[in-house]
Amino acid sequence: MSSAQIRFITLWRREVSRFMKIKKQTLGGPLLETFLYITVFGAALGSRIKQLHGIEYILFVIPGLIMMAWATNSFTNNSSSILQQKFQGAIHDQLSSPASPLELLLAFSLGGFVRGMLVAVITFCAAALLVDLPVENIAVLIPSLFLVGFFFSQLGVLIGVRAEQFDDVAFAQTFILQPLIFLGGVFYSAALLPQPFQTLTHFNPIYYMISLVRYGFVGYSEVSIPLSLLALTAATAALFAFNLRLFSQGYKLRA
Amino acid sequence: MTRLTAMSDPALHIVDLAKRYPTGVEALKGVSIDIEPGEFYGLLGPNGAGKSTLIHCTTGLAQPTGGSIEVFGHDAIHDYGKARQAVGLAPQEINLDHFLTAEETLDFHAGYFGMPKRARRERTEELLETFSLTAKAGDRTRTLSGGMKRRLILARALMHRPRLLILDEPTAGVDIELRLELWHYVQKINQEGTTILLTTHYLEEAEQLCSKIAFIADGQIAAEGTSDNLAARFGVANLEDAYLALVGRNELSRSKIEDLAL
What we know:
heterodimer, A: mainly alpha, two-stranded antiparallel ribbon, 11 helices, 78% helix, globular, B: four-stranded antiparallel beta sheet
Protein backbone atom coordinates (compact mmCIF):
# COMPACT_ATOMS: atom_id res chain seq x y z
CA MET A 1 0.00 0.00 0.00
CA SER A 2 1.40 3.41 -0.93
CA SER A 3 2.04 6.17 1.57
CA ALA A 4 -0.85 8.22 0.14
CA GLN A 5 -3.25 5.25 0.43
CA ILE A 6 -2.24 4.66 4.07
CA ARG A 7 -2.77 8.34 4.77
CA PHE A 8 -6.22 8.47 3.19
CA ILE A 9 -7.41 5.28 4.90
CA THR A 10 -6.17 6.56 8.26
CA LEU A 11 -7.91 9.92 7.82
CA TRP A 12 -11.15 8.10 6.98
CA ARG A 13 -10.64 5.51 9.76
CA ARG A 14 -10.38 8.30 12.29
CA GLU A 15 -13.79 9.60 11.24
CA VAL A 16 -15.38 6.15 11.43
CA SER A 17 -13.75 5.38 14.80
CA ARG A 18 -15.28 8.55 16.27
CA PHE A 19 -18.87 7.50 15.63
CA MET A 20 -18.21 3.84 16.40
CA LYS A 21 -17.00 4.86 19.88
CA ILE A 22 -20.30 6.52 20.65
CA LYS A 23 -22.57 3.98 18.95
CA LYS A 24 -25.48 4.50 21.33
CA GLN A 25 -25.71 8.11 20.24
CA THR A 26 -24.63 7.84 16.61
CA LEU A 27 -26.23 4.56 15.53
CA GLY A 28 -28.63 3.46 18.31
CA GLY A 29 -30.45 6.80 18.60
CA PRO A 30 -31.14 7.27 14.89
CA LEU A 31 -32.29 3.63 14.57
CA LEU A 32 -34.74 4.01 17.44
CA GLU A 33 -36.00 7.26 15.93
CA THR A 34 -36.62 5.58 12.55
CA PHE A 35 -38.46 2.67 14.20
CA LEU A 36 -40.66 5.09 16.12
CA TYR A 37 -41.57 6.76 12.81
CA ILE A 38 -42.36 3.38 11.26
CA THR A 39 -44.49 2.46 14.26
CA VAL A 40 -46.40 5.74 14.46
CA PHE A 41 -46.80 6.54 10.78
CA GLY A 42 -46.72 3.07 9.35
CA ALA A 43 -48.49 0.83 11.81
CA ALA A 44 -50.77 3.27 13.67
CA LEU A 45 -51.61 5.80 10.95
CA GLY A 46 -51.28 3.22 8.19
CA SER A 47 -54.18 1.21 9.59
CA ARG A 48 -56.41 4.25 8.84
CA ILE A 49 -54.91 5.53 5.59
CA LYS A 50 -54.45 2.10 3.99
CA GLN A 51 -53.23 3.22 0.53
CA LEU A 52 -51.70 6.23 -1.26
CA HIS A 53 -51.68 6.14 -5.08
CA GLY A 54 -52.42 2.42 -4.92
CA ILE A 55 -49.46 1.75 -2.61
CA GLU A 56 -49.79 0.49 0.95
CA TYR A 57 -49.14 3.51 3.21
CA ILE A 58 -46.32 1.86 5.16
CA LEU A 59 -44.53 1.05 1.88
CA PHE A 60 -45.04 4.66 0.80
CA VAL A 61 -43.38 5.94 3.99
CA ILE A 62 -40.43 3.55 4.43
CA PRO A 63 -38.37 4.71 1.39
CA GLY A 64 -38.52 8.31 2.67
CA LEU A 65 -37.48 7.17 6.14
CA ILE A 66 -34.49 5.28 4.74
CA MET A 67 -33.46 8.32 2.73
CA MET A 68 -33.98 10.59 5.73
CA ALA A 69 -31.84 8.31 7.93
CA TRP A 70 -28.96 8.38 5.45
CA ALA A 71 -29.25 12.13 4.88
CA THR A 72 -29.51 13.32 8.49
CA ASN A 73 -26.82 10.96 9.81
CA SER A 74 -24.36 11.94 7.08
CA PHE A 75 -25.01 15.59 7.79
CA THR A 76 -24.93 15.41 11.60
CA ASN A 77 -21.81 13.25 11.72
CA ASN A 78 -19.67 15.46 9.54
CA SER A 79 -20.79 18.80 10.91
CA SER A 80 -20.28 17.65 14.52
CA SER A 81 -16.99 15.87 13.90
CA ILE A 82 -15.36 18.83 12.17
CA LEU A 83 -16.62 21.37 14.69
CA GLN A 84 -15.48 19.22 17.65
CA GLN A 85 -12.03 18.82 16.15
CA LYS A 86 -11.83 22.54 15.48
CA PHE A 87 -12.77 23.27 19.11
CA GLN A 88 -10.17 20.87 20.51
CA GLY A 89 -7.56 22.01 18.01
CA ALA A 90 -7.10 18.32 17.23
CA ILE A 91 -7.79 18.98 13.54
CA HIS A 92 -4.31 20.58 13.38
CA ASP A 93 -2.86 17.09 13.42
CA GLN A 94 -4.50 16.31 10.08
CA LEU A 95 -4.01 19.82 8.67
CA SER A 96 -0.25 19.81 9.34
CA SER A 97 0.18 16.40 7.71
CA PRO A 98 1.13 16.02 4.02
CA ALA A 99 -2.57 15.37 3.17
CA SER A 100 -3.92 17.36 0.21
CA PRO A 101 -7.18 19.37 0.41
CA LEU A 102 -8.87 16.67 -1.71
CA GLU A 103 -7.76 13.86 0.62
CA LEU A 104 -8.94 15.78 3.67
CA LEU A 105 -12.31 16.66 2.14
CA LEU A 106 -12.99 13.11 0.94
CA ALA A 107 -12.00 11.55 4.26
CA PHE A 108 -14.17 13.95 6.29
CA SER A 109 -17.06 13.40 3.86
CA LEU A 110 -16.89 9.62 3.82
CA GLY A 111 -17.03 9.33 7.62
CA GLY A 112 -20.60 10.61 7.70
CA PHE A 113 -21.44 8.85 4.47
CA VAL A 114 -20.61 5.48 6.03
CA ARG A 115 -22.55 6.27 9.22
CA GLY A 116 -25.60 7.24 7.15
CA MET A 117 -25.26 4.11 5.06
CA LEU A 118 -25.05 1.89 8.15
CA VAL A 119 -28.22 3.37 9.67
CA ALA A 120 -30.01 3.18 6.30
CA VAL A 121 -28.99 -0.46 5.67
CA ILE A 122 -30.01 -1.58 9.17
CA THR A 123 -33.33 0.27 8.77
CA PHE A 124 -33.85 -1.42 5.41
CA CYS A 125 -33.10 -4.89 6.81
CA ALA A 126 -35.40 -4.37 9.80
CA ALA A 127 -38.17 -2.95 7.61
CA ALA A 128 -37.81 -5.89 5.22
CA LEU A 129 -38.46 -8.22 8.17
CA LEU A 130 -41.64 -6.34 9.10
CA VAL A 131 -43.13 -5.81 5.64
CA ASP A 132 -42.68 -7.16 2.15
CA LEU A 133 -40.54 -4.26 0.89
CA PRO A 134 -40.20 -4.27 -2.90
CA VAL A 135 -37.19 -2.95 -4.84
CA GLU A 136 -38.66 -2.04 -8.22
CA ASN A 137 -35.80 -0.09 -9.80
CA ILE A 138 -32.43 -0.89 -8.27
CA ALA A 139 -30.66 1.02 -11.07
CA VAL A 140 -32.35 4.21 -9.83
CA LEU A 141 -32.39 3.33 -6.13
CA ILE A 142 -28.66 2.71 -5.57
CA PRO A 143 -27.31 5.81 -7.39
CA SER A 144 -30.04 7.95 -5.82
CA LEU A 145 -29.24 6.83 -2.28
CA PHE A 146 -25.48 7.21 -2.85
CA LEU A 147 -25.95 10.70 -4.28
CA VAL A 148 -28.25 11.74 -1.43
CA GLY A 149 -25.75 10.39 1.12
CA PHE A 150 -22.84 12.15 -0.55
CA PHE A 151 -24.77 15.41 -0.95
CA PHE A 152 -25.62 15.54 2.76
CA SER A 153 -22.09 14.48 3.71
CA GLN A 154 -20.84 17.49 1.76
CA LEU A 155 -23.44 19.73 3.38
CA GLY A 156 -22.34 18.51 6.82
CA VAL A 157 -18.71 19.28 5.98
CA LEU A 158 -19.66 22.75 4.78
CA ILE A 159 -21.66 23.58 7.91
CA GLY A 160 -18.94 22.09 10.17
CA VAL A 161 -16.22 24.17 8.54
CA ARG A 162 -18.29 27.37 8.65
CA ALA A 163 -19.60 26.84 12.19
CA GLU A 164 -18.00 28.67 15.08
CA GLN A 165 -20.20 27.22 17.81
CA PHE A 166 -22.49 24.22 18.27
CA ASP A 167 -25.46 26.52 17.95
CA ASP A 168 -24.57 27.07 14.28
CA VAL A 169 -24.78 23.34 13.55
CA ALA A 170 -27.99 22.95 15.57
CA PHE A 171 -29.53 25.90 13.73
CA ALA A 172 -28.83 24.42 10.31
CA GLN A 173 -30.18 21.05 11.37
CA THR A 174 -33.29 22.16 13.25
CA PHE A 175 -34.40 25.20 11.30
CA ILE A 176 -33.34 24.36 7.74
CA LEU A 177 -32.73 20.66 7.20
CA GLN A 178 -35.47 19.16 9.37
CA PRO A 179 -38.32 21.32 7.98
CA LEU A 180 -37.18 20.71 4.39
CA ILE A 181 -37.10 16.95 4.97
CA PHE A 182 -40.46 16.83 6.75
CA LEU A 183 -42.11 19.08 4.15
CA GLY A 184 -40.47 17.16 1.31
CA GLY A 185 -43.11 14.43 1.38
CA VAL A 186 -41.64 11.67 3.54
CA PHE A 187 -45.02 11.00 5.15
CA TYR A 188 -47.44 12.14 2.49
CA SER A 189 -47.88 12.70 -1.22
CA ALA A 190 -47.43 16.27 -2.42
CA ALA A 191 -50.34 15.69 -4.83
CA LEU A 192 -52.67 15.59 -1.83
CA LEU A 193 -51.64 19.05 -0.60
CA PRO A 194 -53.85 22.10 -1.22
CA GLN A 195 -52.43 25.07 -3.14
CA PRO A 196 -50.13 26.95 -2.69
CA PHE A 197 -48.37 24.21 -0.65
CA GLN A 198 -48.41 21.77 -3.56
CA THR A 199 -46.54 24.26 -5.77
CA LEU A 200 -44.21 25.30 -2.95
CA THR A 201 -43.20 21.67 -2.43
CA HIS A 202 -41.79 21.68 -5.96
CA PHE A 203 -39.22 24.26 -4.84
CA ASN A 204 -37.96 21.95 -2.11
CA PRO A 205 -34.95 19.97 -3.44
CA ILE A 206 -35.53 17.21 -0.89
CA TYR A 207 -38.92 16.47 -2.49
CA TYR A 208 -37.06 15.25 -5.60
CA MET A 209 -34.63 13.16 -3.54
CA ILE A 210 -37.47 11.41 -1.73
CA SER A 211 -39.27 10.91 -5.04
CA LEU A 212 -36.20 9.25 -6.54
CA VAL A 213 -35.73 6.86 -3.63
CA ARG A 214 -39.45 6.08 -3.48
CA TYR A 215 -39.43 5.34 -7.20
CA GLY A 216 -36.49 2.99 -6.67
CA PHE A 217 -38.40 1.04 -4.03
CA VAL A 218 -42.07 1.05 -5.09
CA GLY A 219 -41.93 2.31 -8.70
CA TYR A 220 -44.15 5.34 -8.06
CA SER A 221 -43.10 8.91 -8.79
CA GLU A 222 -44.70 12.33 -9.21
CA VAL A 223 -41.60 13.83 -10.85
CA SER A 224 -39.38 13.17 -13.85
CA ILE A 225 -36.81 10.57 -12.76
CA PRO A 226 -34.06 11.34 -15.33
CA LEU A 227 -34.36 15.07 -14.70
CA SER A 228 -34.32 14.65 -10.91
CA LEU A 229 -31.31 12.33 -11.09
CA LEU A 230 -29.49 14.79 -13.31
CA ALA A 231 -30.29 17.74 -11.03
CA LEU A 232 -29.18 15.78 -7.93
CA THR A 233 -25.91 14.79 -9.63
CA ALA A 234 -25.28 18.40 -10.66
CA ALA A 235 -26.08 19.74 -7.17
CA THR A 236 -23.82 17.16 -5.49
CA ALA A 237 -20.96 17.90 -7.89
CA ALA A 238 -21.37 21.65 -7.38
CA LEU A 239 -21.36 21.33 -3.60
CA PHE A 240 -18.30 19.08 -3.72
CA ALA A 241 -16.47 21.57 -5.98
CA PHE A 242 -17.40 24.42 -3.63
CA ASN A 243 -16.12 22.52 -0.57
CA LEU A 244 -12.91 21.59 -2.36
CA ARG A 245 -12.34 25.26 -3.08
CA LEU A 246 -12.86 26.11 0.60
CA PHE A 247 -10.43 23.37 1.67
CA SER A 248 -7.84 24.56 -0.86
CA GLN A 249 -8.16 28.11 0.45
CA GLY A 250 -8.01 26.86 4.05
CA TYR A 251 -11.27 28.72 4.78
CA LYS A 252 -11.84 28.75 8.57
CA LEU A 253 -9.40 25.83 8.89
CA ARG A 254 -6.02 27.51 8.42
CA ALA A 255 -5.34 31.01 9.79
CA MET B 1 9.53 21.25 -10.38
CA THR B 2 11.00 18.53 -8.14
CA ARG B 3 14.66 18.43 -7.32
CA LEU B 4 16.96 16.31 -5.27
CA THR B 5 17.68 17.57 -1.79
CA ALA B 6 21.30 18.64 -1.59
CA MET B 7 23.26 17.75 1.53
CA SER B 8 23.86 21.47 2.02
CA ASP B 9 20.16 22.47 2.03
CA PRO B 10 19.23 24.16 5.30
CA ALA B 11 16.80 22.32 7.53
CA LEU B 12 14.66 25.46 7.46
CA HIS B 13 15.16 28.30 5.02
CA ILE B 14 12.77 31.21 5.48
CA VAL B 15 13.01 34.30 3.30
CA ASP B 16 11.03 37.53 3.80
CA LEU B 17 8.14 35.75 5.44
CA ALA B 18 5.11 37.96 5.91
CA LYS B 19 1.77 37.23 7.50
CA ARG B 20 -1.06 39.69 7.68
CA TYR B 21 -4.25 38.35 9.26
CA PRO B 22 -7.63 39.30 7.78
CA THR B 23 -8.09 41.56 10.83
CA GLY B 24 -5.20 43.66 9.51
CA VAL B 25 -2.72 42.55 12.19
CA GLU B 26 0.76 42.13 10.71
CA ALA B 27 2.17 39.22 12.69
CA LEU B 28 5.29 38.74 10.54
CA LYS B 29 7.00 41.55 8.65
CA GLY B 30 9.63 39.97 6.43
CA VAL B 31 11.29 37.36 8.63
CA SER B 32 14.33 35.54 7.24
CA ILE B 33 16.11 32.73 9.07
CA ASP B 34 18.28 29.76 8.19
CA ILE B 35 18.55 26.72 10.42
CA GLU B 36 21.32 24.31 9.52
CA PRO B 37 20.79 20.54 9.67
CA GLY B 38 21.50 19.23 13.17
CA GLU B 39 21.22 22.65 14.78
CA PHE B 40 19.29 23.31 18.01
CA TYR B 41 17.78 26.70 17.26
CA GLY B 42 15.95 28.85 19.80
CA LEU B 43 13.40 31.52 18.97
CA LEU B 44 12.77 33.95 21.80
CA GLY B 45 10.44 36.87 22.00
CA PRO B 46 7.60 38.36 23.99
CA ASN B 47 3.99 37.21 23.62
CA GLY B 48 2.58 38.31 20.28
CA ALA B 49 6.03 38.72 18.70
CA GLY B 50 5.22 36.25 15.91
CA LYS B 51 6.83 33.01 17.15
CA SER B 52 3.74 30.82 16.85
CA THR B 53 2.71 32.45 13.57
CA LEU B 54 6.11 31.58 12.10
CA ILE B 55 5.66 27.97 13.25
CA HIS B 56 2.11 27.81 11.92
CA CYS B 57 3.24 29.12 8.53
CA THR B 58 5.96 26.45 8.42
CA THR B 59 3.54 23.62 9.28
CA GLY B 60 0.60 24.71 7.11
CA LEU B 61 -1.65 25.88 9.94
CA ALA B 62 -1.41 29.47 8.72
CA GLN B 63 -1.06 30.77 5.19
CA PRO B 64 1.73 33.29 4.64
CA THR B 65 0.91 36.45 2.74
CA GLY B 66 4.47 36.83 1.45
CA GLY B 67 7.91 35.24 1.31
CA SER B 68 9.02 31.63 1.04
CA ILE B 69 9.68 28.65 3.32
CA GLU B 70 11.77 25.62 2.46
CA VAL B 71 12.33 22.55 4.65
CA PHE B 72 15.42 20.60 3.61
CA GLY B 73 15.10 22.20 0.17
CA HIS B 74 11.38 21.43 -0.25
CA ASP B 75 8.75 24.12 -0.66
CA ALA B 76 6.60 24.19 2.48
CA ILE B 77 3.88 26.50 1.17
CA HIS B 78 2.62 25.30 -2.21
CA ASP B 79 3.99 21.86 -3.07
CA TYR B 80 4.24 21.00 0.61
CA GLY B 81 4.09 17.16 0.72
CA LYS B 82 7.80 16.46 1.23
CA ALA B 83 8.33 19.46 3.50
CA ARG B 84 5.50 18.42 5.85
CA GLN B 85 6.79 14.85 5.88
CA ALA B 86 10.07 16.14 7.31
CA VAL B 87 8.52 18.22 10.10
CA GLY B 88 7.18 17.20 13.50
CA LEU B 89 5.24 19.73 15.54
CA ALA B 90 4.64 19.75 19.29
CA PRO B 91 2.29 22.72 19.64
CA GLN B 92 1.95 25.11 22.51
CA GLU B 93 -1.69 24.21 23.24
CA ILE B 94 -2.68 20.70 24.24
CA ASN B 95 -4.66 19.75 21.16
CA LEU B 96 -5.36 16.07 21.73
CA ASP B 97 -8.48 14.41 20.36
CA HIS B 98 -10.67 13.46 23.35
CA PHE B 99 -12.22 10.54 21.49
CA LEU B 100 -8.89 8.77 21.05
CA THR B 101 -6.74 6.73 23.41
CA ALA B 102 -3.05 7.54 23.85
CA GLU B 103 -2.15 4.61 21.59
CA GLU B 104 -4.63 5.65 18.87
CA THR B 105 -3.35 9.23 19.00
CA LEU B 106 0.10 8.02 18.02
CA ASP B 107 -1.14 5.42 15.54
CA PHE B 108 -3.44 7.81 13.65
CA HIS B 109 -0.77 10.50 13.51
CA ALA B 110 1.74 8.10 11.97
CA GLY B 111 -0.95 6.96 9.52
CA TYR B 112 -1.48 10.57 8.38
CA PHE B 113 2.22 10.52 7.48
CA GLY B 114 1.89 7.26 5.55
CA MET B 115 3.67 4.87 7.95
CA PRO B 116 2.78 1.19 7.39
CA LYS B 117 0.89 -0.65 10.13
CA ARG B 118 3.76 -2.71 11.50
CA ALA B 119 6.12 0.25 11.67
CA ARG B 120 3.39 2.26 13.39
CA ARG B 121 2.85 -0.42 16.01
CA GLU B 122 6.56 -0.74 16.78
CA ARG B 123 7.11 3.01 16.94
CA THR B 124 4.03 3.48 19.14
CA GLU B 125 5.29 0.90 21.64
CA GLU B 126 8.75 2.46 21.62
CA LEU B 127 7.52 6.01 22.25
CA LEU B 128 4.92 5.03 24.86
CA GLU B 129 7.76 3.30 26.70
CA THR B 130 10.15 6.23 26.26
CA PHE B 131 7.64 8.70 27.65
CA SER B 132 6.43 6.38 30.47
CA LEU B 133 2.95 6.12 28.97
CA THR B 134 2.73 2.36 28.36
CA ALA B 135 0.36 1.83 31.28
CA LYS B 136 -1.92 4.54 29.85
CA ALA B 137 -1.87 3.27 26.26
CA GLY B 138 -5.57 2.33 26.24
CA ASP B 139 -6.81 5.35 28.20
CA ARG B 140 -8.70 8.16 26.49
CA THR B 141 -6.56 11.28 26.25
CA ARG B 142 -8.95 13.43 28.29
CA THR B 143 -8.30 11.21 31.34
CA LEU B 144 -4.53 11.83 31.28
CA SER B 145 -2.82 14.29 33.62
CA GLY B 146 -1.39 17.54 32.27
CA GLY B 147 2.15 16.18 32.30
CA MET B 148 1.10 13.01 30.50
CA LYS B 149 -0.71 15.01 27.84
CA ARG B 150 2.42 17.11 27.31
CA ARG B 151 4.54 13.96 26.94
CA LEU B 152 2.01 12.44 24.55
CA ILE B 153 2.12 15.55 22.36
CA LEU B 154 5.89 15.27 22.11
CA ALA B 155 5.64 11.53 21.37
CA ARG B 156 3.07 12.27 18.65
CA ALA B 157 5.38 14.82 17.03
CA LEU B 158 8.15 12.21 16.95
CA MET B 159 6.06 9.30 15.60
CA HIS B 160 6.96 9.73 11.92
CA ARG B 161 10.66 10.34 12.71
CA PRO B 162 10.79 13.99 11.56
CA ARG B 163 14.14 15.46 10.56
CA LEU B 164 13.02 18.87 11.84
CA LEU B 165 11.26 18.92 15.21
CA ILE B 166 9.42 22.10 16.13
CA LEU B 167 8.74 22.59 19.83
CA ASP B 168 6.44 25.51 20.58
CA GLU B 169 6.88 26.25 24.29
CA PRO B 170 7.06 22.55 25.19
CA THR B 171 7.72 23.06 28.89
CA ALA B 172 5.13 25.75 29.63
CA GLY B 173 3.36 24.83 32.85
CA VAL B 174 5.16 21.51 33.46
CA ASP B 175 6.86 20.50 36.71
CA ILE B 176 10.64 20.52 37.17
CA GLU B 177 11.10 16.75 36.78
CA LEU B 178 9.21 16.66 33.52
CA ARG B 179 11.01 19.72 32.22
CA LEU B 180 14.38 18.07 32.88
CA GLU B 181 13.16 14.79 31.36
CA LEU B 182 12.08 16.60 28.20
CA TRP B 183 15.39 18.48 28.04
CA HIS B 184 17.35 15.24 28.26
CA TYR B 185 15.25 13.63 25.58
CA VAL B 186 15.37 16.47 23.07
CA GLN B 187 19.11 16.85 23.63
CA LYS B 188 19.51 13.15 22.91
CA ILE B 189 17.56 13.24 19.65
CA ASN B 190 19.38 16.40 18.62
CA GLN B 191 22.70 14.60 19.13
CA GLU B 192 21.33 11.76 17.00
CA GLY B 193 20.82 14.23 14.13
CA THR B 194 17.33 15.73 14.49
CA THR B 195 17.26 19.47 13.88
CA ILE B 196 15.25 21.32 16.50
CA LEU B 197 13.45 24.66 16.47
CA LEU B 198 12.43 25.65 19.99
CA THR B 199 10.35 28.58 21.14
CA THR B 200 10.36 29.26 24.84
CA HIS B 201 9.91 31.96 27.43
CA TYR B 202 12.48 30.30 29.70
CA LEU B 203 15.82 31.88 28.90
CA GLU B 204 17.64 29.28 30.95
CA GLU B 205 16.09 26.62 28.72
CA ALA B 206 17.31 28.37 25.58
CA GLU B 207 20.80 28.84 27.05
CA GLN B 208 21.05 25.20 28.10
CA LEU B 209 19.77 23.68 24.88
CA CYS B 210 20.26 25.96 21.91
CA SER B 211 23.37 26.34 19.80
CA LYS B 212 21.90 29.42 18.11
CA ILE B 213 19.22 31.84 19.30
CA ALA B 214 17.16 34.47 17.51
CA PHE B 215 15.24 37.29 19.14
CA ILE B 216 11.95 38.06 17.44
CA ALA B 217 10.00 41.20 18.27
CA ASP B 218 7.07 42.86 16.54
CA GLY B 219 7.16 40.37 13.67
CA GLN B 220 10.84 40.88 12.86
CA ILE B 221 14.10 39.18 13.75
CA ALA B 222 15.91 41.66 16.00
CA ALA B 223 19.14 39.72 16.55
CA GLU B 224 20.61 36.27 16.05
CA GLY B 225 23.64 34.39 17.35
CA THR B 226 24.90 32.32 20.24
CA SER B 227 23.95 33.29 23.77
CA ASP B 228 27.32 35.07 24.21
CA ASN B 229 27.02 36.83 20.83
CA LEU B 230 23.64 38.23 21.81
CA ALA B 231 24.87 39.44 25.20
CA ALA B 232 27.84 41.13 23.51
CA ARG B 233 25.61 42.65 20.85
CA PHE B 234 23.42 44.31 23.47
CA GLY B 235 26.46 45.19 25.61
CA VAL B 236 25.22 43.23 28.63
CA ALA B 237 26.44 40.33 30.74
CA ASN B 238 24.07 37.52 29.82
CA LEU B 239 21.17 36.35 27.66
CA GLU B 240 18.54 37.48 30.14
CA ASP B 241 19.85 41.04 30.13
CA ALA B 242 20.06 40.96 26.33
CA TYR B 243 16.41 39.92 26.21
CA LEU B 244 15.42 42.67 28.63
CA ALA B 245 17.30 45.18 26.48
CA LEU B 246 15.37 43.89 23.45
CA VAL B 247 11.99 44.43 25.10
CA GLY B 248 13.10 47.74 26.64
CA ARG B 249 12.86 46.59 30.27
CA ASN B 250 16.49 47.01 31.42
CA GLU B 251 15.29 48.12 34.84
CA LEU B 252 14.24 44.52 35.55
CA SER B 253 17.80 43.23 35.16
CA ARG B 254 18.63 41.03 38.14
CA SER B 255 22.29 42.07 38.08
CA LYS B 256 21.28 45.75 38.40
CA ILE B 257 18.88 44.98 41.22
CA GLU B 258 21.65 43.05 43.01
CA ASP B 259 24.04 46.02 42.50
CA LEU B 260 21.47 48.37 44.01
CA ALA B 261 21.00 46.04 46.98
CA LEU B 262 24.71 46.25 47.70
